[in-house]
């Protein structure tokens, strides 16, 4: 825990990433800058990013899934109250992205009274289906020397550039951002990236027809074969997300725990108890069904309760996701929101009193944007402050933009404490002013809108100025 000398009677709980074990010091750091005590958990173990071999008992798995966070929050509340001379905690907030987003949703489902507000980014909420999908991506790209395998970084660069060239204009504005991926899904002409075909931003890398077919599988929803029921496992990758496909398809280093050659089988080996020698080549659709049964029966990591009625009575949720997320497809974030709307009875907008969803065009997984896109993405979400100067000591949004119009965490607090529900949040992107990487200036801003509304340019003002855009 971080316990600031000057405390505003608020507690900020932060989540974790991937299957990591260890305290999330970076995301805790902003807490005291907001005047809050802050708390993180190591989820019950220590490990690196691509290592799941620690998951050798059900208790360790449950600790990672939910129990370590829940226990830490309960103890942390008691410690904070005692440290501040028995002063009560007036508000408890949560901020997490990816696994951290899953943790936040899971905790709300387990104990609706534990948070007053939660800022949830790109949640990996559907663990039991997400991890089989990761393995399916690997299988589609094996063996690695096959004609259909995508194994050259230049291929992603070529594809992303072509998607940008064809699909940027589809939303009516030429701004280097694919803001309407659903239109791109219908309109994209994949033949333009094939070998021997001229394309925008032509490079030496070109795609064979078998590789194009592999990419088309990755864009599509993963649905099991008819003999396995023909059911949805996981949403497909979105057009515009190609810059992040390397996260799953290319090794990060020639080490034991790189992503492509090991991480895509570890879930089955350890969480599903298939054994350390289980090869990814044995993956088939029945594994996805088995994953669901095992998670439901023991670990319960998946945060798939959609009736949040008890939390509605006391708390608020801001959910967000990047349209260019190539790690956790934004379609699955939208799926959680839509299922919640359906389960709680009503239509879009009926949950706005406590649950609001925002999509961020051009943003990747949790933060960032490709250099040839430069989309406004920074909204004070989990992990975002550490991506720009002053990096490890950063908080909120730089250059004095630490207010509820630009910072989603402050917007959440304003909603919880004063009833000011956000209909838009202004996202920002910055440029470095020199080669040191320590100094920045504002590049452009744009409002991100309450789903399903989108930001529309007025056709007159600067596209880099938020005042030239309205949510419709």
Automatic annotation (TrEMBL):
Keyword Repeat attributed: no
EC number(s) recorded for this UniProt protein: 3.1.1.-
SUPFAM superfamilies associated with the record: alpha/beta-Hydrolases
Transmembrane segments: none
Keyword Membrane: no
InterPro entries: AB_hydrolase_fold, Tannase/feruloyl_esterase
Highest taxon of source: Eukaryota
A GO MF term: metal ion binding
Protein keywords: Calcium, Disulfide bond, Hydrolase, Metal-binding, Serine esterase, Signal
Homology family: Belongs to the tannase family.
Name of this protein: Carboxylic ester hydrolase
Lineage of the organism: Eukaryota, Fungi, Dikarya, Ascomycota, Pezizomycotina
């Amino acid at each position: 825990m971080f316990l600031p000398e000057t405390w505003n009677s608020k507690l900020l709980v932060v989540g974790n990433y991937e299957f990591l074990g260890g305290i999330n010091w970076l995301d805790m750091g902003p807490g005291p800058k907001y005047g809050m005590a802050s708390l993180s958990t190591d989820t019950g173990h220590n490990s690196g990013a691509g290592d799941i071999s620690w998951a050798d008992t059900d208790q360790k798995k449950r600790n990672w899934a939910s129990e370590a966070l829940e226990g830490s929050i309960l103890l942390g509340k008691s410690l904070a109250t005692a440290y501040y001379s028995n002063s009560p905690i007036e508000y408890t907030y949560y901020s997490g992205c990816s696994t951290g987003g899953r943790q936040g949703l899971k905790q709300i489902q387990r104990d609706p009274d534990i948070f007053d507000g939660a800022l949830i980014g790109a949640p990996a909420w559907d663990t039991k289906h997400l991890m089989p999908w990761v393995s399916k991506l690997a299988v589609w790209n094996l063996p690695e020397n096959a004609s259909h395998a995508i194994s050259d970084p230049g291929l992603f660069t070529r594809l992303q550039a072509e998607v940008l060239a064809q699909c940027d204009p589809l939303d009516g504005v030429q701004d280097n951002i694919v803001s309407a991926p659903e239109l791109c899904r219908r309109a994209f002409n994949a033949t333009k990236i094939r070998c021997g075909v001229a394309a925008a931003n032509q490079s030496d890398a070109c795609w064979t027809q078998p590789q194009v077919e592999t990419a088309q599988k990755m864009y599509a929803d993963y649905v099991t074969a008819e003999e396995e029921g023909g059911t949805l496992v996981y949403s497909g990758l979105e057009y515009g997300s190609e810059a992040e496909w390397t996260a799953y398809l290319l090794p990060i280093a020639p080490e034991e725990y790189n992503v492509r050659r090991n991480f895509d089988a570890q879930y089955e080996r350890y969480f599903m108890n298939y054994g350390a020698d289980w090869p990814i080549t044995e993956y088939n659709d029945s594994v996805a069904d088995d994953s669901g049964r095992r998670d439901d029966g023991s670990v319960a990591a998946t945060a798939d309760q959609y009736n949040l009625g008890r939390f509605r009575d006391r708390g608020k949720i801001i959910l967000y996701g990047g349209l260019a997320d190539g790690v956790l497809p934004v379609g699955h974030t939208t799926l959680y929101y839509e299922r919640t709307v359906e389960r709680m009875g009503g239509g879009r907008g009926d949950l706005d009193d406590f649950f609001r969803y925002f999509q961020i065009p051009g943003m990747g997984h949790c933060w960032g944007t490709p250099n040839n896109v430069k989309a406004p993405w920074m909204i004070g979400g989990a992990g975002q402050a550490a991506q720009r100067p002053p990096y490890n000591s950063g908080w909120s949004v730089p250059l004095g933009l630490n207010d509820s119009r630009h910072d989603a965490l402050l917007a959440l607090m304003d909603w919880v404490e004063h009833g000011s529900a956000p209909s838009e949040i202004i996202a920002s992107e910055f440029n470095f002013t020199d080669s040191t990487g320590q100094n920045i200036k504002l590049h452009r801003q744009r409002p991100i809108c309450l789903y399903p509304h989108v930001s529309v340019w007025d056709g007159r003002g600067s596209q880099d100025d938020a005042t030239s855009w309205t949510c419709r």
